[in-house]
Amino acid sequence: MTTPALDRPVVLSPGRALRELISGTPDTDADALGIPVGDARVVVVQTETPHLLERLQRAIPLPRRCATTSTADEWVLLLSGVPHRSGVDAAEREAARVLTELRRCQVGGWHGGISAPVRGADDLPSAYRDAADCAGLAARDGQPFLAADEVWARLACARLRTVTRSALPTRSPIDALRQHDERNGTPYGETLGAWLGLGCDTNATANVLCVHPNTLRYRLHRAASLIGLDLDDSNQRLVLQLAFGD
After folding, report:
1. Number of alpha carbons in the 13 Å side-chain half-sphere of residue 226
2. Is the CB of residue 160 less than 8 Å from the CB of residue 168?
3. Less Cβ crowding at N or C end of the chain, within 10 Å?
């Protein structure tokens, strides 16, 4: 009589463990990473160029306290930190060093992002998302990489903009203004967006748009009167900033 084999626990490689942890897979053992998670940083490198990540991965040596995983267009690194006894954020320093070394390879076509410090394994999915979204912002800015610690407000606004459209009521004033511009060839939406993006600074906006400040004021007044906007209302201005923001 054959005795059934006992179920053996699956031993994960560090790369597979990292992929499961950043994906939020339940019950994944963080010990499989082989490095401490506390005070770590997640780094994401993204590209649309085939096989570029393979070249980058061969280009530089990685820190010893590091776990990585990759797909065809994304390379994820977890760089372990140490307690901040000395006031030095070792993981942040290593993350910046790795991305700077990649930049020195003079191989373009990629952008990177660095997360805020990770307190534990439960933080890894959100830290991964932060680093990936920072890489997306870096691509839009034409920068090699950005860190969530430095662009946290832009990161939040970019995410809010993705849901602003669904949050607006049907036939919102914003839609009405855009439709007016399309029908009449007017620049009211562009003017309003530029003014909001420059902190409602009339002179600075006039300079950017190459118009007289009085022309700018007229356009803003006309835009507001066309669709019933109150540009002194903080709620309306916030929604407008998100809707017209880049």
Report:
1. 22
2. no
3. N
Concatenating the DSSP letter of every residue in 160-214 gives: HHHHHHHHSPTT-HHHHHHHHHHHHT--HHHHHHHHHHTTT-HHHHHHHHTS-HH
Residue 65 within any structural domain of the chain: yes
Return the pLDDT at 19: 95
**What's the domain count of the chain?**
2
pTM of the model: 0.80
Name the strand (E) or helix (H) holding 146. strand 145-147
Structure confidence at residue 101 as a pLDDT band (50, 70, 90): very high
Q: Which of 98, 129, 159 is the last residue of a domain?
A: 159
Contact 127, 38 (CB under 8 A): no
pLDDT-derived band at 115, boundaries 50, 70, 90 = very high
Residues 93 and 136 in one domain: yes
Asked if residue 212 and residue 190 are part of one domain, the reply reads yes
- Are 101 and 57 spatial neighbours (Cβ–Cβ below 8 Å)? no
Whether residue 54 sits in one domain with residue 113 = yes
Cβ atoms within 10 Å of 16's Cβ, excluding its own: 16
Give yes or no for a contact between 111 and 66, defined as CB atoms under 8 angstroms apart: no
Give the Cα separation of 143 and 48 in Å (integer).
15
Length reported for the chain: 246
Give the integer Cα–Cα distance in Å for 155 and 85: 29
CA distances from 75 to 18, 203, 209, 232 (A): 11, 44, 40, 45
User: CA 109, CA 50: separation in Å to the nearest integer?
Assistant: 10
* Beta-ladder partners of 69: 76
